[in-house]
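Take a record:
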Amino acid sequence: MIGTLSFGFASTVHLFKRFAEWHQKHGIASIDELIIVLAIMAFAFAIFAWRRWRELQEAHANIKTLRGLLPICASCKKVRDDKGYWNQLEAYILDNSDAEITHGICPDCMKKLYGDCLEGESVSENRALEEISRKPIFPERSS
């Protein structure tokens, strides 16, 4: 941020010096008008840079992501944390990200788990069971 402002200020000063030299050579505009115009430009640049820096800081503060390799058990799907402990996948995601977890049963697992029960059911009852499987089991946690 400081570097950007310094660069903007230095550029404005350099521009001012070049324009002052041009003014001395040609004498077209009043030097007071030049100073006012360049001051306004420098002030506008500073405001723009400050606002952009603030937006980036706010965006950075809102980011919480999982990165890198995530060691996960191929059998039980537990995740190893930085301390070497194995945690349930859901607990790990809740602790290390801003994601919310809901549970349901996908259609393939529904058939595998409840296939015998579903075969005799009507199409509308199957759809009702699929709708139930999409609803979260646990209520959303409050922040």
Summary: The chain has three domains: 2-62, 66-101, 102-143. The two ends are 32 Å apart (CA to CA).
